[in-house]
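dumping this here before i forget
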Amino acid sequence: MSRFSEEVELEMSVRRLRENFHGKIPVDKATVLMRRYRNNHRMVAMEIILMKDRDLDEEDKWSLENDTVVRNVVQKLQTEEREQSERDARSSGASDDSKRSKQPKTSKQGTIKDRDIEELGKRLRVLPLTEKNMRMFDHAQKNLMPSVIHQFACETCDQVWWRRVPQRKRVSRCRRCKKKYDPVPPHKMWGIAEFFCLNCSRSFKGFGRMDIGSPCYICRSIILPTQILPPRRNMRDQGPRRRQQHSCLAEDCYNRQEPHVTGTECVHPRSRQKNNKPQVVNPSLPHISSGSTVNTCLSQGSLLEQVYELILDDIGEEESGEESDSSGSGHTVSS
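structure:
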C-alpha cells in the first residue's frame, strides 16, 4: 500500500474512532492507537475501555517521531480542529483563550507516555452510568456509527443535496461556500415524494413537498406526501412503469389544474425553470456550533459518494462538481 493510501485509511479510522467516542479522544492519541493496532477499531476500543497499563515500545516511539503517515494525519486533523475552534469562537463571541484550551496540543512527551492513554481510559470509565454512555461504548466496540439521512439546502449558492450524517451531529457543509447548515425541517422537505391515497388505496411517486397536497390521478382527492425520498442511482432503473404527466394545484405549475390555489408554488424542476425560480424551495438554517462535536468522515459523505473518495478529494484539495439532483419523472407533484 502506498504512503498516500495509508494516510487516507488512517485518517478515516481516526475520524471514525473519535466520532464513536463522541470527541473525547484527542487527535494525537487516537492516531497513535490506530497506527499501533493497524486500524483495528475493536482492539483500540478494548485498549481504551480496559485501560491496559503498557508503555509504548521502541517501534511506537520511532513511529511518533519519524512515521510520516502518522505525523501528516495528526497535523491535518489538529489543524482542522484548531480552525474549527477559531470559527466557533468568532461566531459565538467566546474568547479565543477559552476555546483554545479545549484543543489537544502536540507534545512528544505527552504522546510517548502511555500514562496519558491510561488517564484517558480512567476518565471514560468514570463517566455516569447512563443509557447514552452505555450506547457509546457498545457502538465503539462494535465499530458502529448510528446515522440518518437528511436533506440540506443552501440558499446563497442555490444548491440542494442529501447527506448521511451521524445522529449526534446532524450537520452538513455546502461544498461551494463552505458554510455549515442544519437539515431542512421534516415538514418543509421537497423533492420526489411518496403518496398513498386512502380513498382508492393507490400509492405513487412524484415531485412534491411535505406541506402541500397533490391530487390523486384516480379519484382526484387531495393528499399529502407520506415522505420525501432521497435520490438513488437505481431510481431510474426500475423497469417499465406507467407515467403520468405532472399536474398540481399550484398557481405557477407548468401543467396547472383548476381550481388552482393562489399563492402556492410548484416544486417540479420544469416549473421552477419556466418561472425562473431557484432550486431551493425551503433553505436550511445556518448551523450554530456548540463546540461539542468533532469533524467526521461521515458528516461530509453523500448518498452517492464513497467516504474513501471524499477523503482522497479532500487531501488533493480539489473540489468536485455538485451532485445533480434526481430528476426522475413523477406521477404527481405537490405544489
